[in-house]
Design a protein that fits this description.
Layout: E1 47-54, H1 61-77, E2 80-88, H2 97-104, E3 110-115, H3 125-139, E4 142-145
Parallel strand pairs: 1-2, 1-3, 3-4
């Protein structure tokens, strides 16, 4: 009895090569299809990203602006073009910024979400992991956490 092994699946992602050795464009899940074949960004183009910030009820305008400025600076130093920041305000009658974030991630040109710290998705580790998995699995986007670097937010 002989066992036949299938050829290895190509690794599909940004700046990866398929098994054939030819450059390919990113192709994510159905909810985030990626660019059409042949329309990959030029090598000099920066990857586009969005930010997500959840404000506490006691956060003043100056602190909010400081957080977003640090997030923009971190994204720029990480080689990302931060095109928008979705801010979750503690007001019950506002539309969910997280829902808007998920909608934005359906755009084929957005590949990364930048957050200041895990607590901006949730203060509870299990919920943070679930929300991060939702972003990564359902949209194909990467989640970059600023506090895992030397630039932790206060």
């Amino acid at each position: 009895m002989t066992t036949q092994h299938a050829a290895p699946e190509p690794v599909i992602g940004w700046n990866y090569l398929a098994v054939s050795g030819r450059p390919i464009v990113w192709a994510g899940p159905v909810t985030h299809p990626g660019p059409l074949p042949g329309s990959a960004l030029p090598p000099t183009a920066r990857r586009r990203a969005v930010g997500y910030v959840r404000l506490r009820p006691d956060t003043d305008t100056a602190a909010s602006e400081q957080i977003t400025a640090r997030l923009r600076g971190f994204a720029a130093r990480s080689g990302l073009d931060l095109v928008d920041i979705f801010t979750e305000h503690p007001h019950p009658y506002r539309r969910s910024a997280f829902g808007e974030l998920l909608q934005a991630l359906c755009r084929p040109d957005i590949s990364t979400v930048v957050i200041p710290a895990p607590e901006h998705l949730s203060e509870f580790d299990g919920i943070y992991q679930a929300m991060r998995a939702l972003i990564e699995i359902e949209t194909g986007a990467d989640v970059l956490v600023m506090s895992h670097t030397t630039e932790a937010t206060p």
